[in-house]
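Fill-in record for SDR family oxidoreductase.
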Amino acid sequence: MKILITGTTGYIAKRLALQLLDQKHELVCCVRDLNRIPDALEEAPNCSFIKVDFLKPENAEIPNDINAAYYLIHSMATSSQNFESLEEQCASNFKALVAKTQCQQVLYLSGIVNADTLSKHLKSRLLVEDTLKSEYYSLTTFRAGIIVGSGSASFEIIRDIVEKLPFMITPKWLNTKTQPLAIRDVLSFLSGALGKKELYNNAYDIFGPEILTYKEMLLQFAEVRDLKRYILTLPVLTPKLSSYWLYFVTSTSFKLAAALVDSMKVEVIGKPSAINDIIGITPIDYKTAVDLAFQKTEQNAVISSWKDAVSSGRFKDQLSKYIELPQYGCFTDTRQRPVTNEALTLEKIWSIGGKNGWYSFNKLWKIRGYLDKLFGGVGLRRGRTHDTDLEAGDPLDFWRVLLADKNEKRLLLFAEMRLPGEAWLEFKIEKDQLFQRAVFRPKGVWGRLYWYSVLPFHAFIFRGMINALVKP
């Protein structure tokens, strides 16, 4: 089959694309920015890429001969106040483009909606589902609750909470019931439904075998990790306080924390159907899903993470707009050192941040991360998706990777921390020399005051970092 994939750089779509390629399908992957093609897909046979922004589809060209399409565009982390209307517009534009092709089936991953009072994001997903219905193709919708897998938002947030807090005073929504589903089962449902006409124009709830409260999920997670944890739930924590609690304890952004709290107040129990038998799936239990997720994490084999999404940080535009470093109205800190072992230096550059730290004055980097978190920034807790691999779009502590090209021997980062301006950090090897350049484009007087206030620290932080990178 020739299949159109949307949301290619997202958590679900990146994994699904690899699975579909293993099943010998031909893929056409939609990306907003051609500089953000995942490395795992870029060289894959039977996989091509087209630039499409479904909010601005004027120049989009969808191949006419596609047989099926996956609509996997959604962001709980968006900062837009009118995200519901934007998502409706996005789905409407997608439908109009696909209706012009030979596509017979569209598959959409939505959320379980079985309550009278829905969160904003569940309302949005239901609205998108209604928008996608068309007389030109058949729609198959899968509705899932909590998805558990390496790199998933729920897995990472629960891991942060469980591993950091032996005793927890938590909001009352921890008693809300849900049915967690393993990511591998989600992918099996999505891929297994391709071309099955009995699933056309139908919606199915997909869920794991257990009904658990969020409190039980935390405690079972602790059991898998062989940790003893104690939880006290209090009814006095308001949704806003609960959002701050999640924000400061975990690596999530405040936007996502608020969206999660809004969703977690609603019970998510799936409606039984024959879908497991039709697809031939027996979903695994929660503890097994957690254990498998940790195996992937420990093997450094995490394919995708919720943090990969640009909307998980403060980035607003396509990465390609920031790859050219500005020349005017900027402050720069440029350093240069001879490289004696190029392979080792490149390895250090590609391993920077996360667990490995920044090679120099890590305590000061951590303090900067705490301050950023305190003022509503992303902080250092996001870490990085892989310990040694980087690609454009990856999160890297409070930076975003703009370009990671080992052939060009260049790594370029853009700051997502709270700043009165814009900042870049570049590492590049040329003619046996390592060039390390920090560029800051200030915004107004406060930006200039900020640069001069941190200038004394740059003298030893940046000097120590470049010295460590070239050290044999």
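KEY FINDING: The longest strand covers residues 421-430.
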